[in-house]
Amino acid sequence: xxxxxxxxxxxxxxxxxxxxxxxxxxxxxxxxxxxxxxxxxxxxxxxxxxxxxxxxxxxxxxxxxxxxxxxxxxxxxxxxxxxxxxxxxxxxxxxxxxxxxxxxxxxxxxxxxxxxxxxxxxxxxxxxxxxxxxxxxxxxxxxxxxxxxxxxxxxxxxxxxxxxxxxxxxxxxxxxxxxxxxxxxxxxxxxxxxxxxxxxxxxxxxxxxxxxxxxxxxxxxxxxxxxxxxxxxxxxxxxxxxxxxxxxxxxx
Length: 252
What we know:
The chain is 84% helix and 0% strand. It is mainly alpha-helical. It has one domain. Helix 4 packs parallel to helix 8 (161-182). The protein is globular, with a radius of gyration of 23 Å. This is Heme ABC transporter permease. Its main location: membrane.
């Protein structure tokens, strides 16, 4: 009887220890990411609104350039127009990324749970990147369908995918940090734009330069593409690491 009671006590100890054991960082990340993806794909509010907004921006660009003369000069400004489309569309999505958490009190629940704050940042940034990438897959080809009559890109035009990836990663990471800061502020839409555009300006400048080099091709591509891409990637690494380290302080 004494041995049986000892075995039962040991089993209870093991069970209590296993119940109190916190899930791994990877498990926390997958759970939070799955929560965001399932919530969005169930309603599709953010993706649909970002897609419609991107289409409207393209229509406005089309009206503004309807009297422009076709020519290779259009390629020199098309990179900037494309990134204006990406930035405006991403602002709409970032403004809504924390709306459900703040409205339903989910953010407080996440903070009370035994979770690493950096994991919350990484999961939210990844979900924002996925939503932005889905919209870009539709919006970028649509952009070139509208403006293909102005000028044909160079043979290196397909390389614009690389600065799009680099820029989207930075926008998702930096935007997640800033949307967390402005989530509980009055007039958060304006506040996010005021903080977001100046902070991402170096990344935006580098990505516009790399995109323009890819579209124009020739000597311009050889001179500036990889340099601009390296600057953008370096800025991504620095800012995302800083956001990850400071996220605990910001979210608390």
